[in-house]
Design goal:
Elements: E1 2-6, E2 17-23, E3 27-28, E4 33-34, E5 38-41, H1 45-48, E6 53-58, E7 67-76
Antiparallel strand pairs: 1-5, 1-7, 2-3, 2-6, 4-5, 6-7
Length: 77
């Protein structure tokens, strides 16, 4: 399980997030938990280790959505 820490918090926790994609690589994060500053996923660490940013897609309840790009602070296993 990988943990991705963001430079700034997302607008919400995973309850209102449709999808997060790690960039570069356009890797969809699987089985997300946590937020809004740290997210855990079941993607293998080697596939997300190089993430520099994430693209977050929010559901319709998030007023400042629907998408947001945030820089990644760290990726740990």
């Amino acid at each position: 399980m990988a943990t991705i820490t963001l430079v700034q918090p997302a607008l919400t926790t995973v309850d209102h997030i449709v999808m997060i994609r790690a960039q570069p690589g356009n890797i969809q994060l699987a089985n997300l938990t946590g937020g809004p500053i740290q997210f855990r996923c079941t993607n293998p660490l080697p596939t997300v280790r190089a993430a520099k940013s994430v693209e977050i897609t929010y559901d319709a309840t998030v007023h400042d959505g629907p998408q947001h790009t945030i820089q990644v602070s760290s990726v740990m296993g």
